[in-house]
Every structure is written in structure tokens, then in C-alpha cells.
Amino acid sequence: MNTSGIYQIQSIIKPERIYIGSATELNKRKFSHYSKLRKNIHCNIKLQRHYNKYGESDLIFTILITCEKEELIEKEQFFIDIYKPYFNIAKYANSPMLGLKHSEESKKKMSISGKNAMHTYWIGKHFTIEHRQKLIIKLKERKRNKMSEECKIKIGNKNRGKIRTLETKHKMSIKKQLYHPQKGKIGILSKLSKPIDQLDLNNVFISNWESINQCSLCINIPKSNIIMCLKGIIKQTHGFKFKYK
Fold first, then answer.
1. Any residues with CB less than 8 A from the CB of 205 and at least 6 apart, and which?
2. Phi and psi angles of residue 83, each rounded to the nearest 5 degrees, phi first
3. CA torsion, points 131, 123, 210, 53, in degrees to nearest 10?
4. What pLDDT band is residue 207 in, cutting at 50, 70 and 90?
5. How far apart are CA 134 and CA 155, in angstroms?
6. In the chain, what are the domain boundaries?
7. At CA 18, angle to CA 15 and CA 24, rounded to 5?
């Protein structure tokens, strides 16, 4: 089974849900998919949610066709166009083939293309605190640029002359920024944020967090996983349980 080819992962309960992929070693790719799904760390969130809800026995791994390594992308795209798979996030087959060496010029072109691509998928990625801060600053700058001068003047006139108590100022500062003793500024707290408790698998209390966002940033767990725990879709993630305070 250690041959290159195209495979599919299909649901039994919902057979219209299919994932199409290609691999130079099909046996290793199958093991990789199921291993990540069991650990709840699969990069494909749609496939992971389905696995968490219906279980491993519902997903069947099948080889569609075997082919040479050089034909993988072409064949994979053919099956994606035919089946229009539900689980595939990217609709174009562009995964690099293992063992294929690119020239320095090709690497530079691929790098530029990746940076300028509009369809970049960040699911499962863990950003550093510095990178998050840069993203927050960029978003703030975009909002300021979109706001017209007339709108800025109206907002300024409305807030000018307001007298706030020390207690109000303190509450506003807490809602505006989140701080971590070692990491410093880590994000923005929404007015709708709810405190949550972090527990171990034996329901022993570990820590309390002001919001899902703060918890996700500090312990480096995807926010979507924490939300699924809170909603009861999954029982635990990364060895922890979560519930609203």
C-alpha cells in the first residue's frame, strides 16, 4: 500500500461527505489522518468536527487510483472537479510532492505567490504573541482609514467633555486590553466575553480565564476547540475540559 496515488475519506452516515487527497505513500498518509483525528489536532476543521461527532468508524479510507508521483496533482484535481468533495477546504490540488526538489528561483516564486495569495487557510496555526499584536495593530489602522473625517469629528464631539469616574476608567481599561504577567499585551476583550474555567480530565479546577480569546492565546489552544468543548460538541481538547464560570 506504500504507493503513490489518489485516495478518498468518505462518511458512512452521510455518504455525500467526501475528502479527496493525494500522497506519495498512501499507507503513511492514512495513518497520519487518523492519528491527528484521534488527538483532535487535525488541520481540516470540517473533517475533525465530523470525526468528533460520528466517530472513527464512520470514516472509510479508500484508494481511488494509483499513479506516478508526477501525475498526483493532475489526477487529484480531476477527482476534486468530479466529486466536489465536502471536506476539502481548498478546491485546487496544489500540495507539493514529497521528494521533488525545487530550484532557488522556483522557491522564490512559490514564496511570493504564497504571500500574495487571497485564499490562505490558517486553521490549526499557532501564532506568536508578537505576530498577534501586529495583526491587531493592522486591523485598527484599517478601521481608522475607513472612517471618514466627518464621522471622526462627530465621535470626537460626542465624547468631548464627558467626565468619567476612576471606577469607570478602570473598567474601560480592563475591557480594552488583556495582559499576561510574562507575555504582556495579548489581545482585546469583547464586551460580550464570558469567564470560563479550565479543568483537567478528572474535572479538577486548574485556572479561570476572563474570555475564550484570553484562554486560547495564553495556553495556545485553538479557539474553535475551546468553543466546541463549551457547547458540548466534544468532551475535551488537548487534555483539558472547559466550562463557563
1. 197, 198, 199
2. -85, -25
3. -170
4. confident
5. 26
6. 5-98, 129-187, 196-244
7. 140
Question: Is residue 14 helix, strand or coil?
Answer: coil
Distance of CA 58 to the CA centre of its chain: 23
Radius of gyration of the chain (CA): 23
CA torsion 84-88-90-95 (nearest 10°) is -110
Tell me the backbone φ, ψ of residue 235, rounded to 5 degrees: -85, -35
CATH tag, 5-98: 3.40.1440.10
Contacts of 30-34 with C-beta under 8 Å, sequence gap 24+, read: 30/1, 30/61, 33/9, 33/61, 34/61
C-alpha to C-alpha distance for 137 and 139, rounded to whole angstroms? 5
**pTM for this entry:** 0.41
Determine the 3-state secondary structure of 77 from DSSP: helix
Burial of 124 (0-12, 13-18, 19+ CB in 10 A): middle
Query: Do 216 and 226 form a contact (C-beta atoms < 8 A)?
Result: yes
Cα separation, 51 vs 160, whole angstroms: 54
* Cell, residue 4: 503513490
Helices marked H in the chain? 26-39, 45-54, 72-83, 104-116, 129-146, 149-159, 166-176, 212-219, 223-231
Helix (H) or strand (E) holding 184: strand 184-187
Name which of 55, 64, 43 is nearest 14 in CA terms.
55
What is the predicted pLDDT for the residue at 11?
93
Which pLDDT band, with edges at 50, 70 and 90, does 170 fall under? low
